[in-house]
Amino acid sequence: MALTRPIGLNEPEQPPQGGAAPPSGEAGRVTPMMEQYVEIKTANPDCLLFYRMGDFYELFFEDAEVASRALGIMLTKRGKHLGADIPMCGVPVERADEYLHRLIALGHRVAVCEQLEDPAEAKKRGPKSVVRRDVVRLVTPGTLTEDTLLDARRNNYLLAVARARLSSVGKEARFALAWIDISTAEFRVTECDRLSLAAEIARLEPGEIIVSDALFGDADLAAFWRELPAVTPLARDVFDAATAERRLTAFFAVATSEAFGMLTRLELTAAAACITYVERTQIGKRPPLSPPLREAASATMAIDQATRGNLELMRTLSGERRGSLLETIDRTVTAAGARLLAQRLSAPLTDPAAIECRLEAVAAFVDDAAARADTRSRLAAAPDLARALARLAVGRGGPRDLAAIRDGINAAADLARALSALNEPPVEIAQAMQACRRPDGMLAAELSAALAAELPAFKRDGGFVRQGYDAALDELRALRDESRRVIAALQARYAEDTGVRALKVRHNNVLGYFVEVTTQHGDRLMAAPFNATFIHRQTLAGQVRFTTSELGELEAKIASAAERALGLELEIYERLAGAVIADTEAIKACAEALAQLDVASSLTHLAAERDYARPQVDDSLSFIVEGGRHAVVEQALARDGTPFVANDCDLSPPKDADGGRIWLLTGPNMAGKSTFLRQNALIAILAQMGSFVPAKRAHIGAVDRLFSRVGAADDLARGRSTFMVEMVETAAILNQAGPRALVILDEIGRGTATFDGLSIAWATVEHLHDVNKCRALFATHFHELTALAARLARLHNATVRVKEWQGEVVFLHEVTAGAADRSYGIQVAKLAGLPASVIERAKLVLAKLEQEDRAAPKGFEDLPLFAMPRPHSPQTQNDALDLVVAVVAALNPDDLSPREAMEALYSLKDKLAKANKG
Predict the structure, then answer these.
(1) Which of 40, 30, 36 is nearest to 83 (CA)?
(2) Helix or strand or coil: residue 647?
């Protein structure tokens, strides 16, 4: 709740006496404090301004109205500005992180304005002087560092997107992406084209995206930016290519950008934009960022946003982490390990050598359960080094961050010694062991000697330096603590004298020491005889505060000792923090090593727990999975004691073929077709991220692009029906998939009329086979498509087995070669609970339709869409052509209704048939 006090107009920094507002003065008068506030707010117009006043951050005017609605806190009006009431609300400083988290989650940006001097110093300049204040930080979604504002197990990226047009005409362009997590120091850059932009952003899931004003307002991309959360348009100077290299090299204090490798001009622009934004939001604080590392566009498997959603990699379709692939495979014991696991899952590698390096690290722990358990136990004791280091570097750290550095260094050293028992450790493990030894052991020893056993959250609270570490500090503490005992005795005496047992003597930075009672006891102390002793200072919503002459004298004695003790502690803190920052590079390397070891050991633990096999990944087009299982579904079934039915899959190219196989999968609903499709895609992802896979054996030729069109949903915000969304996603696949791609398609064409859908599905299969030449799984209820296997060499028919028993259908979930002749839709409808009358009527209709189909069978040679032209004599062909020309010339398409157009088409067909017979 906000502090209900008036905005002081005559004496802005003095706490108000009682609850009454001071006189407002002339209607047009601007008080010194309001003048300061308006000046600071004008410099930060796009942010809510947290204006520090004592123990509160206050918000005024429109900011107060916005914040009170967003946070559900009281909106008050105290004092006047230019003759009008000033809306105001506030939040306690000690709970500021909680309110910041809620505001950031709602998309707001916050400017934090702190008091830069003690109010007593301001008073020396005159009774109406205002305490110096200024913004010390801009809090935005992509620049968070506090644990309370972040998910410990997820990265929080700030992403900059820069564009360069390839020509002065046309819409072809290249995009550079630079992303930073200032809480972990990661800094990466890459380039992509327009088609890949959405996929790259989906991979990174940034907390905030910055773009230039021009790019944000681009007509072709405006709708795209609006769909993304937390997109911040910035002035042109942030994305100025001419100054980009200078800004970037100045930040890292290097002579040339060649120190970062061969970055393109566009990549330099995006990277410099990130750096500039970080500098402007951190205001003089420099996070310990790593130099920008370039990611080659082809280094990771391309997975578009629709595919990530369909496969539920990071979260389910409902937006929850539970039930996703990430949640299913996550056995990490550290926050850093969890973040690295998510990174690897979202960006599987395409280089078989790099994948093999990761698999070797996982395999190192497979045969030694004891070493694996010991490693995981030691890792669990390691704090989050990277984020503790970042907070210390930007001045937002505390004693507990120093302790995290100490404990992390010690845990890493212990782990390196334990892992030295491994016989010929793999490259990744050996490099991690070396990095674990890099931090200065003397630094950890110094931190151990300096820090107390129990540490406060904030350095301003003091008490974090161990007794005996500094003799001068011990002496000051002794004097301070004696005074505190006197305060405690004074509180007890006041409580006894007044009969108010709830009376407390408290302290804050504005009032100093004061006596506090609840509102119900306030009148008692303001009445005789207690008003001779207790002097009223302040009335709050639920408390009344007083002072006494005796308390004021005692405060002066205590203040000197307490302030000097805290000042000395803060000096010790700054010295220790400086020593940590001086060892930044070694600590960062150690943090990365601990994360790598956590991921490797956790994936081994998963493999042992769930019986996963080591995959073979190479440069071929092979795709052989024996006994494959769906990782998420298997674990869900295991909780109920139900076994998962494993299945094989072989999409490898047939002998002498120039592309992978396409499996055409038929079978009833609920039989497990979608599960089979997804599980093979997930196995490819797991294999290429460097994990063992849920199968008996897997041989995967590295997949460069993965596409999934499974499930159905509309997009009403963009005016797209379910079928339109399906077609857009299918178009993206057919336009982008190449021979190394893996495509899974489910029920293409089911959202429209039967012949339309069948036609689209038929043509899609042909295109995948003849043009894309990719490995693919294609599930369908169009059983007519199975006829394509006779003429498409790489098309393989497969079906999911079912068994009928006493009128019921039993799903066996087994995938075998062959084709289904029924979809068992009525049986599935019965299982879903459709009324019995509907089921019986459906059976009658189906029987009638099947009887008519048997009486007048209609093969594909009778369908205009699929009829093959019959050979005709030249004269017959000429006559037919003349007939077509004559009929079409007589038609006026603008005057035809759809029905009339269809009738004209059938009439033309009849005339052609007669002409051909003649």
Answers:
(1) 30
(2) strand
* Cα gap 287→279, rounded to integer Å: 9
Backbone angles phi, psi at 115, to 5 degrees: -75, 125
d(CA 290, CA 186): 6
Tokens of 814: 């087994």
Helix (H) or strand (E) holding 64: helix 61-71
At 827, the pLDDT band (50, 70, 90 cuts) reads confident
Which of 230, 235, 201, 233 lies closest to 217, judged by CA? 233
| DSSP conformational letter for 670 | T
Distances (CA, A) of 824 to 797, 800, 858, 894: 19, 12, 21, 44
Strand pairing report for 186-193 and 293-294: parallel
Per-residue DSSP letter, 47 = S
Q: How far is CA 676 from CA 329, 630, 778, 825, in A?
A: 19, 7, 11, 19
Q: Are 628 and 679 in contact (CB under 8 A)?
A: yes
Which string of b and e fits 212-224 if b means at least 16 CB within 10 Å? beebbebeebeee
d(CA 130, CA 12): 7
End-to-end CA distance of the chain: 94
Q: Which helix (H) or strand (E) holds 470?
A: none
Q: Extract the tokens encoding 350.
A: 């395409």
Q: Which residue has the tokens 């006090």?
A: 5
Amino acid at 488: A
pLDDT digits (tens, 9 = 90+) for 187-237: 999 999 988 899 899 999 999 999 999 999 998 898 899 889 889 999 999
Q: Which residues contact 644 (CB under 8 A, 6 or more apart)?
A: 629, 630, 633, 634, 637, 638
What is the C-alpha separation between 437 and 411, in angstroms, rounded?
10
Reported as a pLDDT band with limits 50, 70 and 90, residue 492 is: very high
Residues contacting residue 193 through CB under 8 Å, at least 6 positions apart:
173, 174, 175
pTM value? 0.80
CA distance 33 to 80: 12
What are the beta bridge partners of residue 817? 798
- With beta carbons less than 8 A apart as the criterion, state whether 738 and 703 touch: no
**Cα separation, 483 vs 647, whole angstroms:** 77
Name residue, tokens 């410990």.
152
- What would the pLDDT profile of 143-155 be if each residue is shown by its tens digit? 998 888 889 999 9
CA angle 312-315-317, nearest 5°? 65
Separation in Å, CA 379 to CA 251, 410, 430, 609, 692: 34, 11, 16, 19, 21
Return d(Cα 111, Cα 97) in angstroms, integer. 13
What count of residues does the chain have? 918
Q: Render pLDDT for 829-872 as a digit per residue (tens, 0 to 9).
A: 777 778 888 878 877 877 777 776 655 555 554 444 444 344 44
**Angle at the Cα of 132 from the Cα atoms of 129 and 137, rounded to 5 degrees:** 155
Chain position carrying tokens 């507990």: 400
**The token pair that represents 817 in the structure block:** 């070669």
Give, for 714, the enclosing helix (H) or strand (E): none
Tokens of 872: 């005709």
- Average pLDDT of 463-471? 93
Cα(766)–Cα(743) distance, integer angstroms: 14
Task: For residue 149, count CB atoms less than 10 angstroms from its CB and return exposed for 0-12, middle for 13-18, buried for 19 or more.
Answer: middle
- How many CB atoms are located within 10 Å of the residue 844 CB? 9
**Residue 743 corresponds to which tokens in the numbers above?**
């495509």
Q: What is residue 866's DSSP assignment?
A: T
Binned at pLDDT 50, 70 and 90, residue 9 comes out as: very low
Q: 323-333 b/e with 16+ CB inside 10 Å = b?
A: bbbbbbbbbbb
- Integer Cα distance of 527 and 529 in angstroms: 6
Residue 83 tokens, joined: 């003759």
Whether the upstream peptide bond of residue 456 has omega within 30° of 0, thus cis, is no
